[in-house]
Amino acid sequence: MEKIEPVVTIESLDQEGRGVAHHEGKVIFIEGALIGERVTYSSYRKKPSFENAVVQRVLKQSYMRVQPKCAHFDLCGGCSMQHLDARAQVAAKQRILEDNLQRIGKVRPETILAPIYGETWGYRQRARLSVRHVLKKGKTLVGFHEKRSSFIADMQHCEILPPKIASLLPLLAQLNEQLSVRDQLPQIEVAVGEHVDVLVLRILQALSPADEALLKQFADAHQVQFWTQTKGPETVKPFYPLDAPALTYSMPEFGIEMPYAPTEFTQVNSAMNRLMVGRALRLLAPKSKERIADFFCGLGNFTLPIARSGAQVLGIEGSAALVKRAEQNAAHNGLSANTKFEAMNLFETDEKALAAKGRFDKWLVDPPRDGGIELVKAITPEIAPQRIVYVSCNPATLARDAEVLVNVKGYRIKAAGVMNMFPHTSHVESIAVFTKP
Ligand SMILES: C[S@@+](CC[C@H](N)C(=O)[O-])C[C@H]1O[C@@H](n2cnc3c(N)ncnc32)[C@H](O)[C@@H]1O
After folding, report:
1. Looking at residues 67-71, what average pLDDT do you find?
2. Are residues 21 and 149 in the same domain?
3. Whole-number Å distance between alpha carbons of 410 and 384
4. Ligand 1 pocket, 373 CB below 6 A?
5. pLDDT in tens, 218-261
6. Residues 321 and 388 in one domain
7. What is d(CA 19, CA 139) in angstroms, rounded to the nearest whole number?
8. Is residue 158 among the annotated active site residues?
9. What is the pLDDT of residue 292?
10. Which residues pair with 416 in a beta bridge?
11. Which pTM does this prediction carry?
12. CA separation for the pair 343, 367 (Å, rounded)
């Protein structure tokens, strides 16, 4: 007898951009399905209370469904939301932020900030491409992983990488095929700067003279600079050409130029970064002579714009290499006099360690996905800042930390909003402002 496929109606979108439906008491998370759609699906993971699935047939289509621009969208794991209109993606991310704040944080912002969004294609200036020579296919693949897989997608192009880098994907694959180290080159890291495009080759075996000649030829032909990394991050060094301009991004609103090394953390989307830093600074409203802390400061992306106001800024960061870079960048921009940077593990901080830094008028906090729970728990009345601007790449940890700030530490959540830093992916970048009444 023919098996009847279940038909479900999608009720919402989850954090990963999957459609959420219910069937026979189970929650079904369906990739490729949109709110309001009636779909059939095929499950690839079945648990007692939920199933993970991919959409099979769309019986009633959402008016927000669009044709994905990328030919590899169904296969490639680099994007998950190209089938949803770009403005609707932003609205979905805003809903995810509000839901998280309400459900996990039990807080409601007094104001929802208008979303910030920009160019949705060719925006990704930082990327980690995987490389694999696949004997069965008789060729090298260079690209992102396939959805839910450790295989590398066979992709000829990419719509979210800058067009020049996207056009190099098949050429890099051909280049790898000619190298003696073709099986010893698992990754290429991309860093597109204002004056140079850097490709860092992770190589596990020394290049032969013939390999070196091929790489130099490629770099000259396509105007890229190759760097190599043989072991840990300290082994990253430029290979060719050695006289290329420095890798930089800039923030003209604040008269700031930021040099960086290609494996150091920088925001992936520099146009959105400018808008994000601008918004964060307006919300923080730093003033001359104020004492301000920038936690998880990286290379000083927020610290230096804050310092332009004349405030005294302390940047705190876990990576000693980034602390050094931030100090160099402060000097590069003439801001050494009112900035200071310290290395500190902020996941292990406590009241005593934080009190030792003294009281600041305002905080900027921009943690990794795990959030900054130890930091917010360590706030005591003696050192509590009057204002905290919290930038987050994970609404769930922002919501968890917001709960402590509002319900334990007595802050008000004045405003929150999203920034579409990663269009067509499910990543949600957001910002929230907390003040002491
Ligand atoms: C989202 S990035 C933000 C960096 C910077 N604010 C920017 O905009 O470029 C998070 C930063 O937290 C740092 N970090 C990660 N774990 C940390 C820890 N346990 N303690 C302190 N800093 C940490 C990372 O090195 C990274 O620079």
Report:
1. 96
2. no
3. 10
4. no
5. 999 999 999 999 998 889 999 999 999 999 999 999 999 999 99
6. yes
7. 36
8. no
9. 98
10. 112, 432
11. 0.95
12. 14
